[in-house]
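Lecture notes, part 5. Sequence design as translation. It can be helpful to think of inverse folding as translation between two languages: the language of shapes and the language of residues. The source text, in structure tokens, appears below.
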């Protein structure tokens, strides 16, 4: 006899609490900005519209909501947006990593932090071309964004009311976190050097970021979101970008401040980083992280992570966007999904999705095969 049918919210909560739901929960990482070129193809294939709406930085237009319904995903996401006054002057172009920005040129946007991004030659991705704090010896003349400015949470509050009873709703403060935002502002090389030798300036910068992120996280928790997502790409394909000790010195204590605060309000915490972050997984568990995303299989073995940490961490993601989705067949995708369910799904603690934002080289039929396969093979009690 199978498990009793649940709605998305019930299903996701049981999985995160390491109890078996009726089926493995599904998430979708095709919505965010890097995925937009692929998303256009997907929406066209499914005849769901064009994803041109502007209700939330992470893409909460009606077309995307219909897509999530079509795929059967169990989660929804809200974001802190730029303030109303900035939005009135800015453009919203989802081809950019941060889509809201003042138009500096036809292919360049400047976000509210003063960071400029420029589209690449194919007009499908953006890169940073100006770091507002690069070369600065002081932060005295820089104004950090104010999370209390009017309009930041208007879209999030509206969407949360629509979704809260049915789905598990996650939230993010409109961008990346400590390490990434520091180098977006300061420049990558300079940030690494500052962490080693200019700790006073780096600590001041990170403390200012902490004030913003802490306010946003608590606002979301008070609104009633279920998950606070902390996204900070501190790892590459084979290991951490910075040493574990630098991360523990500069990032971990500030993450602890946020996590301790929101955990008192009863929310789950998701941590996202690309790449191989194995050296700090015990630290993440110590901090109280509930969900680790995206467990890229080219970087970390999901079965090994499940075996070592599965009683304390929920794995989110795990399906290869580097190999299987762009280069494999539908049957390859189905085989990988079955393998993840078999090796990582016992006892709950597994959420399946692509292992990062889906890019333009992904075959639409392969992407859709993930969701079909989970519905077919992911029913509890597992028998594969």
């Amino acid at each position: 006899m199978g498990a009793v049918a649940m709605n998305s919210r019930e299903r996701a909560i049981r999985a995160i609490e390491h109890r078996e739901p009726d089926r493995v929960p599904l998430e979708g990482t095709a919505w965010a900005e890097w995925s937009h070129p692929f998303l256009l193809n997907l929406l066209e294939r499914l005849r769901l519209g064009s994803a041109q709406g502007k209700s939330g930085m992470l893409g909460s237009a009606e077309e995307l909501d219909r897509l999530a319904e079509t795929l059967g995903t169990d989660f929804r996401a809200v974001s802190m947006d730029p303030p109303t006054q900035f939005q009135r002057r800015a453009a919203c172009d989802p081809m950019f990593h941060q889509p809201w920005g003042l138009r500096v040129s036809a292919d360049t946007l400047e976000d509210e932090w003063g960071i400029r991004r420029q589209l690449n030659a194919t007009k499908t991705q953006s890169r940073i071309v100006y770091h507002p704090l690069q070369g600065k010896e002081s932060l005295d003349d820089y104004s950090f964004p104010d999370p209390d400015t009017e309009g930041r949470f208007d879209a999030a509050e509206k969407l949360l009311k629509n979704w809260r009873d049915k789905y598990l709703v996650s939230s993010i403060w409109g961008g990346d976190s400590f390490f990434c935002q520091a180098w977006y502002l300061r420049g990558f090389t300079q940030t690494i050097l500052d962490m080693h030798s200019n700790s006073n300036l780096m600590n001041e910068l990170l403390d200012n970021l902490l004030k913003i992120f802490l306010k946003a996280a608590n606002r979301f928790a008070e609104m009633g979101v279920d998950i606070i997502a902390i996204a900070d790409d501190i790892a590459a394909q084979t290991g951490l970008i910075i040493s574990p000790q630098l991360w523990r010195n500069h990032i971990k204590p500030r993450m602890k401040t946020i996590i301790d605060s929101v955990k008192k309000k009863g929310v789950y915490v998701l941590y996202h980083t690309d790449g191989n972050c194995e050296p700090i997984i015990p630290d993440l568990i110590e901090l109280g992280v509930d969900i680790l995303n995206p467990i890229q299989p080219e970087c970390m073995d999901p079965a090994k992570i499940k075996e070592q940490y599965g009683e304390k961490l929920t794995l989110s993601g795990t399906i290869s966007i580097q190999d299987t989705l762009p280069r494999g067949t539908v049957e390859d995708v189905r085989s990988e999904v079955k393998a993840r369910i078999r090796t990582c799904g016992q006892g709950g603690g597994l959420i399946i999705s692509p292992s990062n934002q889906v890019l333009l080289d992904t075959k639409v039929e392969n992407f859709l095969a993930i969701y079909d396969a989970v519905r077919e093979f992911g029913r509890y009690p597992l028998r594969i």
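The translated text above is only one of many valid answers, since several sequences can fold into similar shapes. The chain has two domains: 8-80+152-377, 82-151.
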